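To close the chapter, one final illustration. This time we ask the reader to focus less on the individual chains and more on the assembly as a whole: which components sit near each other, and how the overall shape emerges from the parts.
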Amino acid sequence: MDQDTLLNLLSASADGDKQAFADLYQSTSGQLFAVSLKMLGRRELAEEVLQEAYVKIWHNATEYQHGKGSVLTWMISIVRYRALDMLRYQKVRKEDPLEDGQEAIFEEHINDDGPQVHKNKLDQCMGELEPQQKQAIHLAYYNGLSHHEVVGHLDLPLGTIKSWIRRGLQQLQRCLSL
Amino acid sequence: MNYRDPQLKDALAAEYVLGTLRGQARRRFQKLMMQIPSLRESTWLWEQHLHGMNQLLTPITPDERVWQQISMSLGFVDNVAQAPLPETSNVVPMATRNRLWKGLASMASAAAIVMAVLVVNNQPVPVATSQQVAVVQSAQSKALWLIEVTSNTIEVRSTSNLKPLANKDYELWMVAKGVENPISLGLLPKSGKLTLVKNSQFDDMDIVALAVSLEPLNGSPNGLPTEVLYTAELAIL
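The assembled structure is written out below.
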Protein backbone atom coordinates (compact mmCIF):
# COMPACT_ATOMS: atom_id res chain seq x y z
CA MET A 1 0.00 0.00 0.00
CA ASP A 2 1.61 3.24 -1.09
CA GLN A 3 1.97 6.48 0.81
CA ASP A 4 -0.73 8.32 -1.18
CA THR A 5 -3.35 5.67 -0.50
CA LEU A 6 -2.51 5.57 3.20
CA LEU A 7 -2.51 9.35 3.35
CA ASN A 8 -5.97 9.48 1.78
CA LEU A 9 -7.26 6.93 4.27
CA LEU A 10 -5.66 8.71 7.20
CA SER A 11 -6.97 12.12 6.22
CA ALA A 12 -10.47 10.70 5.68
CA SER A 13 -10.15 9.12 9.15
CA ALA A 14 -9.20 12.52 10.53
CA ASP A 15 -12.52 13.75 9.13
CA GLY A 16 -14.35 11.01 11.01
CA ASP A 17 -14.75 8.55 8.15
CA LYS A 18 -15.06 5.21 9.93
CA GLN A 19 -14.95 3.16 6.76
CA ALA A 20 -11.67 4.79 5.74
CA PHE A 21 -10.31 3.98 9.17
CA ALA A 22 -11.41 0.36 8.81
CA ASP A 23 -9.62 0.25 5.44
CA LEU A 24 -6.55 1.83 7.01
CA TYR A 25 -6.62 -0.84 9.69
CA GLN A 26 -6.95 -3.56 7.12
CA SER A 27 -4.05 -2.22 5.08
CA THR A 28 -1.63 -1.73 7.95
CA SER A 29 -2.56 -3.92 10.91
CA GLY A 30 -0.54 -6.94 9.71
CA GLN A 31 2.59 -4.87 9.49
CA LEU A 32 2.03 -3.13 12.81
CA PHE A 33 1.15 -6.37 14.54
CA ALA A 34 4.43 -7.90 13.34
CA VAL A 35 6.26 -4.94 14.94
CA SER A 36 4.38 -5.26 18.19
CA LEU A 37 4.68 -9.04 18.37
CA LYS A 38 8.38 -8.94 17.62
CA MET A 39 8.95 -6.55 20.51
CA LEU A 40 6.64 -8.11 23.07
CA GLY A 41 6.88 -11.73 22.07
CA ARG A 42 3.45 -12.52 23.52
CA ARG A 43 0.40 -12.42 21.39
CA GLU A 44 -2.09 -11.07 23.91
CA LEU A 45 0.18 -8.20 24.91
CA ALA A 46 1.01 -7.47 21.30
CA GLU A 47 -2.72 -7.32 20.52
CA GLU A 48 -3.37 -5.01 23.43
CA VAL A 49 -0.67 -2.64 22.21
CA LEU A 50 -2.03 -2.82 18.68
CA GLN A 51 -5.49 -1.98 19.88
CA GLU A 52 -4.34 1.00 21.92
CA ALA A 53 -2.17 2.21 19.08
CA TYR A 54 -5.08 2.26 16.61
CA VAL A 55 -7.29 4.09 19.07
CA LYS A 56 -4.53 6.68 19.34
CA ILE A 57 -4.10 6.79 15.56
CA TRP A 58 -7.82 7.57 15.18
CA HIS A 59 -7.70 10.34 17.77
CA ASN A 60 -4.43 11.80 16.51
CA ALA A 61 -5.02 11.44 12.78
CA THR A 62 -5.23 15.23 12.38
CA GLU A 63 -1.77 15.61 13.87
CA TYR A 64 0.04 13.70 11.18
CA GLN A 65 2.29 15.92 9.07
CA HIS A 66 4.57 14.99 6.24
CA GLY A 67 7.57 16.15 8.31
CA LYS A 68 6.92 13.23 10.59
CA GLY A 69 7.78 10.77 7.82
CA SER A 70 5.53 8.51 5.80
CA VAL A 71 2.12 7.58 7.21
CA LEU A 72 3.38 4.07 7.89
CA THR A 73 6.47 5.36 9.71
CA TRP A 74 4.29 7.57 11.84
CA MET A 75 2.00 4.67 12.68
CA ILE A 76 4.93 2.36 13.44
CA SER A 77 6.27 5.00 15.86
CA ILE A 78 2.98 5.01 17.73
CA VAL A 79 3.02 1.23 18.04
CA ARG A 80 6.67 1.09 19.05
CA TYR A 81 6.44 3.73 21.75
CA ARG A 82 3.38 2.05 23.17
CA ALA A 83 5.16 -1.31 23.11
CA LEU A 84 8.20 0.21 24.84
CA ASP A 85 5.91 1.58 27.54
CA MET A 86 4.41 -1.84 27.95
CA LEU A 87 7.86 -3.44 28.21
CA ARG A 88 8.95 -0.87 30.75
CA TYR A 89 5.96 -0.65 33.02
CA GLN A 90 4.87 -4.22 33.01
CA LYS A 91 8.39 -5.57 33.01
CA VAL A 92 7.24 -8.22 30.64
CA ARG A 93 9.82 -10.33 29.06
CA LYS A 94 9.61 -12.96 26.45
CA GLU A 95 8.80 -16.35 27.80
CA ASP A 96 11.47 -17.81 25.59
CA PRO A 97 14.53 -15.65 26.00
CA LEU A 98 16.53 -15.22 22.86
CA GLU A 99 19.03 -17.99 22.51
CA ASP A 100 21.56 -19.25 20.08
CA GLY A 101 19.85 -19.66 16.78
CA GLN A 102 17.82 -16.54 17.39
CA GLU A 103 19.24 -15.09 14.21
CA ALA A 104 17.73 -18.00 12.30
CA ILE A 105 14.27 -17.21 13.66
CA PHE A 106 14.93 -13.64 12.83
CA GLU A 107 15.82 -14.43 9.23
CA GLU A 108 12.52 -16.24 8.78
CA HIS A 109 10.69 -13.05 9.42
CA ILE A 110 12.67 -11.10 6.90
CA ASN A 111 10.71 -10.25 3.84
CA ASP A 112 12.98 -9.19 1.06
CA ASP A 113 10.17 -7.96 -1.10
CA GLY A 114 9.87 -4.83 1.00
CA PRO A 115 8.66 -2.02 -1.20
CA GLN A 116 10.69 0.90 0.03
CA VAL A 117 13.65 2.44 -1.69
CA HIS A 118 14.64 3.77 1.71
CA LYS A 119 14.81 0.21 2.92
CA ASN A 120 17.55 -0.63 0.42
CA LYS A 121 19.63 2.28 1.56
CA LEU A 122 19.06 1.24 5.16
CA ASP A 123 20.03 -2.35 4.34
CA GLN A 124 23.16 -1.16 2.68
CA CYS A 125 24.09 1.08 5.62
CA MET A 126 23.29 -1.60 8.19
CA GLY A 127 25.45 -3.94 6.15
CA GLU A 128 28.38 -1.57 6.56
CA LEU A 129 28.26 -1.79 10.36
CA GLU A 130 30.49 -4.14 12.30
CA PRO A 131 28.54 -7.39 12.81
CA GLN A 132 28.51 -6.89 16.58
CA GLN A 133 27.27 -3.31 16.27
CA LYS A 134 24.56 -4.48 13.95
CA GLN A 135 23.57 -7.28 16.30
CA ALA A 136 23.36 -4.94 19.29
CA ILE A 137 21.22 -2.47 17.35
CA HIS A 138 18.96 -5.26 16.11
CA LEU A 139 18.46 -6.61 19.63
CA ALA A 140 17.62 -3.18 20.97
CA TYR A 141 15.40 -2.23 18.08
CA TYR A 142 13.42 -5.35 17.24
CA ASN A 143 13.25 -6.82 20.71
CA GLY A 144 12.97 -3.60 22.68
CA LEU A 145 15.96 -4.50 24.84
CA SER A 146 17.68 -1.98 27.08
CA HIS A 147 21.45 -1.59 27.19
CA HIS A 148 21.53 -3.86 30.23
CA GLU A 149 19.49 -6.51 28.52
CA VAL A 150 21.68 -6.40 25.44
CA VAL A 151 24.62 -7.00 27.80
CA GLY A 152 22.84 -10.10 29.02
CA HIS A 153 22.55 -11.43 25.48
CA LEU A 154 25.97 -10.59 24.17
CA ASP A 155 27.91 -11.11 27.37
CA LEU A 156 30.06 -8.01 27.07
CA PRO A 157 30.60 -5.08 29.43
CA LEU A 158 27.90 -2.41 29.57
CA GLY A 159 30.32 0.32 28.49
CA THR A 160 31.22 -1.65 25.38
CA ILE A 161 27.59 -2.22 24.45
CA LYS A 162 26.73 1.43 24.95
CA SER A 163 29.57 2.64 22.82
CA TRP A 164 28.88 0.07 20.09
CA ILE A 165 25.32 1.19 19.85
CA ARG A 166 26.23 4.87 19.97
CA ARG A 167 28.94 4.55 17.35
CA GLY A 168 26.81 2.24 15.24
CA LEU A 169 24.03 4.82 15.16
CA GLN A 170 26.46 7.62 14.30
CA GLN A 171 27.84 5.60 11.44
CA LEU A 172 24.36 4.73 10.30
CA GLN A 173 23.42 8.37 10.21
CA ARG A 174 26.49 9.34 8.21
CA CYS A 175 25.77 6.58 5.74
CA LEU A 176 22.04 7.39 5.44
CA SER A 177 22.69 11.11 4.97
CA LEU A 178 25.04 10.57 2.05
CA MET B 1 23.60 19.39 29.19
CA ASN B 2 23.10 21.50 26.14
CA TYR B 3 20.32 19.80 24.22
CA ARG B 4 20.78 22.18 21.33
CA ASP B 5 24.21 20.73 20.60
CA PRO B 6 23.58 19.00 17.26
CA GLN B 7 25.63 15.91 18.05
CA LEU B 8 24.12 15.33 21.43
CA LYS B 9 20.67 16.02 20.05
CA ASP B 10 21.12 13.42 17.34
CA ALA B 11 22.56 10.88 19.70
CA LEU B 12 19.68 11.25 22.14
CA ALA B 13 17.05 11.22 19.41
CA ALA B 14 18.59 8.08 17.92
CA GLU B 15 18.59 6.24 21.24
CA TYR B 16 15.10 7.46 22.00
CA VAL B 17 13.82 5.97 18.75
CA LEU B 18 15.93 2.84 19.14
CA GLY B 19 14.41 2.40 22.58
CA THR B 20 17.63 2.34 24.58
CA LEU B 21 17.03 5.73 26.19
CA ARG B 22 15.26 4.66 29.35
CA GLY B 23 13.86 5.76 32.66
CA GLN B 24 14.33 9.32 33.79
CA ALA B 25 16.38 10.20 30.71
CA ARG B 26 13.56 9.08 28.45
CA ARG B 27 10.94 11.10 30.28
CA ARG B 28 13.20 14.16 30.25
CA PHE B 29 13.71 13.73 26.53
CA GLN B 30 9.97 13.51 25.90
CA LYS B 31 9.43 16.73 27.79
CA LEU B 32 12.24 18.50 25.93
CA MET B 33 10.74 17.40 22.62
CA MET B 34 7.65 19.39 23.47
CA GLN B 35 9.80 22.47 23.98
CA ILE B 36 12.51 22.21 21.36
CA PRO B 37 11.29 21.86 17.77
CA SER B 38 14.68 20.80 16.42
CA LEU B 39 14.77 17.90 18.86
CA ARG B 40 11.38 16.81 17.58
CA GLU B 41 12.63 17.01 14.01
CA SER B 42 15.71 14.92 14.81
CA THR B 43 13.42 12.35 16.35
CA TRP B 44 11.18 12.23 13.28
CA LEU B 45 14.23 11.84 11.10
CA TRP B 46 15.45 8.90 13.16
CA GLU B 47 12.01 7.35 13.04
CA GLN B 48 12.21 7.49 9.27
CA HIS B 49 15.72 6.03 9.33
CA LEU B 50 15.10 3.16 11.68
CA HIS B 51 11.50 2.22 11.02
CA GLY B 52 12.54 1.07 7.57
CA MET B 53 13.81 -1.97 9.48
CA ASN B 54 10.21 -2.90 10.25
CA GLN B 55 9.30 -3.06 6.63
CA LEU B 56 11.45 -6.17 6.51
CA LEU B 57 9.13 -7.94 8.93
CA THR B 58 6.56 -10.21 7.35
CA PRO B 59 3.06 -8.96 8.23
CA ILE B 60 1.12 -11.12 10.69
CA THR B 61 -2.65 -10.86 10.75
CA PRO B 62 -3.94 -10.04 14.23
CA ASP B 63 -6.99 -11.75 15.68
CA GLU B 64 -10.38 -10.37 14.63
CA ARG B 65 -11.15 -9.34 18.18
CA VAL B 66 -8.54 -6.57 17.97
CA TRP B 67 -10.61 -4.69 15.43
CA GLN B 68 -13.78 -5.43 17.38
CA GLN B 69 -12.24 -3.95 20.51
CA ILE B 70 -11.02 -0.90 18.60
CA SER B 71 -14.50 -0.36 17.15
CA MET B 72 -15.96 -0.55 20.61
CA SER B 73 -13.38 1.73 22.20
CA LEU B 74 -14.06 4.35 19.58
CA GLY B 75 -17.82 4.05 19.94
CA PHE B 76 -18.31 2.85 16.36
CA VAL B 77 -20.51 0.07 17.75
CA ASP B 78 -22.17 -0.76 21.04
CA ASN B 79 -21.05 -4.33 21.30
CA VAL B 80 -18.75 -6.82 19.71
CA ALA B 81 -21.35 -8.52 17.57
CA GLN B 82 -21.99 -5.27 15.72
CA ALA B 83 -18.40 -4.55 14.85
CA PRO B 84 -17.95 -5.04 11.12
CA LEU B 85 -14.81 -6.92 10.23
CA PRO B 86 -12.49 -4.61 8.39
CA GLU B 87 -11.43 -7.17 5.83
CA THR B 88 -15.01 -7.52 4.72
CA SER B 89 -15.68 -3.93 5.32
CA ASN B 90 -19.31 -3.78 4.30
CA VAL B 91 -20.11 -7.11 5.77
CA VAL B 92 -21.48 -8.18 9.08
CA PRO B 93 -21.40 -11.91 9.51
CA MET B 94 -24.40 -13.32 11.22
CA ALA B 95 -23.45 -14.13 14.77
CA THR B 96 -25.06 -17.50 14.63
CA ARG B 97 -26.88 -19.50 12.05
CA ASN B 98 -29.84 -19.51 14.32
CA ARG B 99 -30.08 -15.77 14.25
CA LEU B 100 -30.03 -15.88 10.47
CA TRP B 101 -33.13 -17.96 10.08
CA LYS B 102 -34.98 -16.16 12.84
CA GLY B 103 -34.19 -12.79 11.33
CA LEU B 104 -35.67 -13.58 7.97
CA ALA B 105 -39.26 -12.77 8.78
CA SER B 106 -38.54 -9.24 9.85
CA MET B 107 -36.31 -8.30 6.97
CA ALA B 108 -35.98 -5.80 4.32
CA SER B 109 -38.32 -2.88 4.15
CA ALA B 110 -35.29 -0.88 3.09
CA ALA B 111 -34.56 -3.47 0.47
CA ALA B 112 -38.07 -3.12 -0.84
CA ILE B 113 -37.53 0.60 -1.35
CA VAL B 114 -34.29 0.00 -3.17
CA MET B 115 -35.99 -2.58 -5.32
CA ALA B 116 -38.80 -0.22 -6.18
CA VAL B 117 -36.28 2.37 -7.31
CA LEU B 118 -34.38 -0.25 -9.21
CA VAL B 119 -37.38 -1.46 -11.10
CA VAL B 120 -38.72 2.00 -11.89
CA ASN B 121 -35.34 3.24 -13.09
CA ASN B 122 -34.64 0.22 -15.12
CA GLN B 123 -37.06 0.61 -18.00
CA PRO B 124 -34.82 -0.96 -20.67
CA VAL B 125 -34.90 -4.25 -18.78
CA PRO B 126 -37.95 -6.04 -20.01
CA VAL B 127 -39.86 -6.41 -16.80
CA ALA B 128 -41.94 -9.25 -18.13
CA THR B 129 -38.96 -11.60 -18.15
CA SER B 130 -38.03 -10.81 -14.56
CA GLN B 131 -40.17 -12.83 -12.28
CA GLN B 132 -38.51 -12.01 -9.02
CA VAL B 133 -35.91 -9.59 -7.72
CA ALA B 134 -33.77 -9.26 -4.62
CA VAL B 135 -31.23 -6.81 -3.33
CA VAL B 136 -28.40 -8.03 -1.17
CA GLN B 137 -27.57 -5.32 1.29
CA SER B 138 -24.69 -4.65 3.65
CA ALA B 139 -25.28 -4.02 7.33
CA GLN B 140 -25.18 -0.33 6.51
CA SER B 141 -28.08 -0.90 4.12
CA LYS B 142 -26.00 -0.38 1.04
CA ALA B 143 -26.96 -2.46 -1.96
CA LEU B 144 -24.15 -4.88 -2.85
CA TRP B 145 -25.71 -7.13 -5.47
CA LEU B 146 -28.89 -6.80 -7.49
CA ILE B 147 -30.48 -10.11 -8.34
CA GLU B 148 -33.13 -10.69 -11.00
CA VAL B 149 -34.67 -14.06 -11.50
CA THR B 150 -35.96 -14.71 -15.01
CA SER B 151 -37.59 -17.82 -16.40
CA ASN B 152 -34.31 -19.65 -16.97
CA THR B 153 -31.56 -17.60 -15.40
CA ILE B 154 -30.53 -15.59 -12.39
CA GLU B 155 -28.96 -12.31 -13.42
CA VAL B 156 -26.66 -10.82 -10.82
CA ARG B 157 -25.01 -7.43 -10.88
CA SER B 158 -22.52 -6.26 -8.31
CA THR B 159 -22.59 -2.61 -7.29
CA SER B 160 -19.76 -0.22 -6.58
CA ASN B 161 -20.52 -0.57 -2.86
CA LEU B 162 -19.00 -4.02 -2.94
CA LYS B 163 -15.44 -4.24 -1.68
CA PRO B 164 -14.64 -7.87 -2.33
CA LEU B 165 -11.80 -9.82 -0.78
CA ALA B 166 -9.33 -10.96 -3.42
CA ASN B 167 -8.73 -14.33 -1.81
CA LYS B 168 -12.39 -15.20 -1.21
CA ASP B 169 -15.49 -15.88 -3.24
CA TYR B 170 -19.11 -15.06 -2.49
CA GLU B 171 -21.72 -17.74 -3.03
CA LEU B 172 -25.45 -17.37 -3.46
CA TRP B 173 -27.84 -19.83 -1.80
CA MET B 174 -31.55 -20.34 -1.65
CA VAL B 175 -33.23 -21.20 1.61
CA ALA B 176 -36.44 -23.10 1.03
CA LYS B 177 -39.22 -23.98 3.39
CA GLY B 178 -39.05 -27.61 4.51
CA VAL B 179 -35.54 -28.08 3.12
CA GLU B 180 -32.98 -28.43 5.83
CA ASN B 181 -29.89 -27.06 4.10
CA PRO B 182 -29.51 -24.11 1.79
CA ILE B 183 -29.02 -24.99 -1.88
CA SER B 184 -26.23 -23.36 -3.83
CA LEU B 185 -27.18 -21.20 -6.80
CA GLY B 186 -23.60 -20.40 -7.81
CA LEU B 187 -20.86 -17.87 -7.21
CA LEU B 188 -21.61 -14.16 -7.26
CA PRO B 189 -19.60 -11.75 -9.40
CA LYS B 190 -17.02 -9.69 -7.53
CA SER B 191 -17.45 -6.99 -10.15
CA GLY B 192 -19.74 -6.46 -13.12
CA LYS B 193 -22.51 -8.80 -14.11
CA LEU B 194 -23.00 -12.53 -14.23
CA THR B 195 -25.73 -14.84 -15.45
CA LEU B 196 -26.28 -17.97 -13.37
CA VAL B 197 -28.23 -20.93 -14.64
CA LYS B 198 -31.37 -21.26 -12.58
CA ASN B 199 -31.48 -24.37 -10.44
CA SER B 200 -34.21 -26.65 -11.79
CA GLN B 201 -35.75 -26.91 -8.32
CA PHE B 202 -35.97 -23.15 -7.97
CA ASP B 203 -39.51 -22.69 -9.25
CA ASP B 204 -40.87 -25.67 -7.37
CA MET B 205 -39.75 -24.56 -3.98
CA ASP B 206 -41.12 -22.16 -1.47
CA ILE B 207 -38.07 -19.93 -1.18
CA VAL B 208 -37.93 -18.12 2.13
CA ALA B 209 -34.81 -16.15 1.36
CA LEU B 210 -31.58 -15.94 -0.52
CA ALA B 211 -28.33 -16.01 1.40
CA VAL B 212 -24.78 -14.98 0.55
CA SER B 213 -21.83 -16.72 2.10
CA LEU B 214 -18.12 -16.04 2.24
CA GLU B 215 -16.20 -18.96 0.77
CA PRO B 216 -12.72 -20.00 -0.23
CA LEU B 217 -11.97 -19.32 -3.90
CA ASN B 218 -14.15 -21.47 -6.18
CA GLY B 219 -16.87 -21.78 -3.61
CA SER B 220 -18.00 -23.91 -0.72
CA PRO B 221 -15.78 -26.94 -0.20
CA ASN B 222 -18.58 -29.08 1.31
CA GLY B 223 -21.80 -27.94 -0.33
CA LEU B 224 -22.88 -25.91 2.68
CA PRO B 225 -22.37 -22.20 3.36
CA THR B 226 -19.10 -21.62 5.21
CA GLU B 227 -19.94 -18.23 6.71
CA VAL B 228 -23.28 -16.60 6.00
CA LEU B 229 -22.82 -12.88 5.51
CA TYR B 230 -26.21 -11.64 4.40
CA THR B 231 -29.66 -12.68 3.47
CA ALA B 232 -32.12 -11.10 1.08
CA GLU B 233 -35.80 -11.56 0.49
CA LEU B 234 -37.11 -12.32 -2.96
CA ALA B 235 -39.89 -10.10 -4.16
CA ILE B 236 -42.28 -11.31 -6.81
CA LEU B 237 -42.99 -8.78 -9.55
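Chain A is about 75% helix and 0% strand. Residues 3-90 of chain A form a domain with the Rna Polymerase Sigma Factor; Chain: A fold (CATH 1.10.1740.10). With these observations in hand, you are ready for the problems at the end of the chapter.
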